[in-house]
User: Fold this.
Amino acid sequence: MTGFTQRLGTVLEHRAVGIRRALDAPERTPRSAVVLGRVVGVGFAVCFLTGVYSHLQQHPLDWLPLPTRPVDLYAWTQGLHVTVGTALLPLVLAKLWVVYPRLFAWPPVRSLVDVVERGSVAILVSASLLQLVMGVLNTFQWYPWPFSFPRTHWGLSWVVVGAIAVHLGIKLPLIARHWRREAAPQDPT
Assistant:
C-alpha cells in the first residue's frame, strides 16, 4: 500500500508542478495580489457599511437613532452599494486570476496555518462570489432560489467580513512586505 501512495503522490506532484508552470504569468505576483486585494477590500468595506446602514433603515433599533437628513441619503447609499458591488465582481475575478496558481502548490498543506488559510480562502471565495452574483441578480429582481434574498444577503455579508478578517490575519506578513511600491515583485511567497 505504501508503494501505491508514493506513486500517487509523485504523479500528483508532477501534475501540480506542470499546472503551475502552465499558469505562470509575469502579472501573477504577490505585489499584484496585494494591490488588487486593497481595492477589493475597500469595495467590500463600502458594501458592508452601506448594507448595514440599509439594514438598520429597514429594521431600526430602538436605541440607535439614524440620521433623517439629507432626505436622499438612503438613495445615495443604496446607489453606492449597488455600484460598488457590481464593480467588485470583475475585481474579485481578477484577484482570483492572480492567485489561482497557489491552488496547485505542492504539498498542498504544509502546516496548520496552511489548513486554516485554505479553509478561510474557500469560505471567502465561495461566500463572496455568491454574495456578488446574488446582488447582481437582485438588481434585475430575478430570484431563482427558494430562500429570502435580504436575510441571506445580510447573513453572507457577515460571513464574508469574517473570512476577510481571517484572511488578512494570515496574510499580514506577506501584505506588509508588498504594500509599498518599492517591494520586489519577484519575492517568493
Remarks:
- The mean pLDDT is 86.
- The two ends are 34 Å apart (CA to CA).
- The domain at 2-178 is CATH 1.20.950 (Fumarate Reductase Cytochrome B subunit).
